[in-house]
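ok here's the first one, seq then struct tokens
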Amino acid sequence: MLIGLMVTISLVVASLFIGVYDLNSEGGREMFFITRVPRTLALILAGASMAVVGLIMQLMTQNRFVEPSTTGTIEWAGLGLILTYIFFPQPSLFLRMVVAIIFAMIGTIIFFAFLQRVALKSSLVVPIVGLMLGAVVGAVSTFVALQTDMLQNLGIWFAGSFTGVTRGRYELLWIVAATTILVYFIADRFTVAGLGQEIATSVGLNYRAVMIVGISIVAVTTGVVSVVVGALPFLGLVVPNLVSMFRGDNLRSNLPWVVMVGIVVITLTDIIGRTLIMPFEIPVSMILGVLGATVFVYLIVRKGRRG
């Protein structure tokens, strides 16, 4: 744990000082607090919260392949953002956040409602259902964007990046810090709910209430991160699976590790994106997509070998 903490702190410190702008030049100190510090704080908050959300969704569905980008939740938030720009040409950050959260919640509820009606709930069918729902919603968003000449806005949103995160544009992410702390206090309930409705109910847990709280946390976190940063695919898939490989499945004891590994993964991918083709940047979503797809295939192969 101590080594992991030191690695995390080292990457966070490195993130503060990596970039095109020379901090020793005139105005460098101001730029440090306007861009570098907010960007690093955004990396910490977004990485930790999305990793925790992925773990919650995997517990609620009892499936290791589930997270916001494999359930269509992110695509629903994107649809909400596009519709916001259509009906309110210059929406405030707060309005975009509220609409994105509402649509993310609708999408998550539809996924769980649809899941309850699927007879075959194998580990592969569940994410496939989510990916199909997400593809349909994504297609609707693209069609709406084409009809309203907002395809460029949609492309910018899908290319999740921390490039535009500056002071005054990241503060909403403190909301997801609150939801992550809330998860820690009710972690035991999510762990019991992850055993299934029958077992959870038999030990006196209000299963429906826990599910509603879980869906709300997923929607709020996904909506806020989508508005500030954009889409961060597969982060919630990669991190919980990496942690469970060496820590097991206890949510409470794993939470600090999930938070820490989430920060490490998002910070590392952001540093790679900033340095690989300097002075230009590769969006974090692109690197996460490659990493997540690789882990996704590995998990499928690993599960196939184990039968």
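and now the second one, same deal
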Amino acid sequence: MKSVEPAHAAPHAREQAPPVTSVEPARPARSVRKNRDWLHGLLMSTPAVVGLIAFVGIPFGYAVVLSFYNVRLGSPLEPTWFGIEHYRRLFTDPDQSGPFLRSLFNNLTFAAVVVPVQTGLALGLAILLNRKLKAIGLFRSLFFMPVVFPMALVAVIWRLILARSDQGMLNSALDAVSFGNWGAFDWLGDSATAMISIIILSIWQGVGFQMVILLAGLQSIPSELYEAAELDRASRWQQFRHVTLPGIRGTLVFVAMLTSVLSFRVFDQIYVLVKGGGLNEDAARTVMYQAVTTAFDQNNIGQASAITVVFFLIVLVLSLIQRRVVRPDNED
């Protein structure tokens, strides 16, 4: 009897079907989540973008327009087209290029001294006040107190300190220390000490702000890193180099850039001291002071606008270069 081989059962359709992966259903969900995140980011950044356009973009655009016109404050004449005449005079006319280049040099000198000195001093104070000491909150408040003072009040205080007569606080102190051999010295009126006085005043007023930012950065470093460094018998200097500095590098970059921007806009203390404190105007003149006096003392709005436009571009280029040089490696 011939046996009949049983036919193989057809494989189940479920076994033949290709495995179903979860990739296809996940795509719509991922896309929806991405669109939702993009929408949230747009909504959160809208107030900042609107403020940036309203308070920076539009005024700068208006200044660019005014720089091409001959506009006189209080003049009954209509503004007339001036082309690039303001910019040409700014660099070729000795009557205008001299004070402008002098003010630009003073600005760069001020920034070159204030940025490293103020940042380094703020870092030292932050390390000092990061210790666990009694009444540490009181010391932090004392160092931060000058920041809350208006710059006009700070200028008045330092005008009393640096007064030219022998009744000035600094002259009196030097006279007492030198047993009467120190005479009266005009710290603000002398061209050699006018800008130095402004630099010291500005560092004293602003170092507390940078100190608070760096103190927050120091307190974010895990204490386990210092404990591990002590187990490895690392010295204080080695802990500072290999634990502290890498831990606050991003904060240091931010503080340096913020200090640079603030140092380029120095104006208040110079204006107050020039008008009422006997400050040497030529030795301490900055670009912002030059722009304001050109606009409101000489009533030349077009020339003042050209000064601000050129200064804005200079500061923008320097900020981009600084950002390129000191940016953290993890942003590459």
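notes on #2: The first strand starts at residue 69 and ends at 70. The beta strands are 69-70, 80-81.
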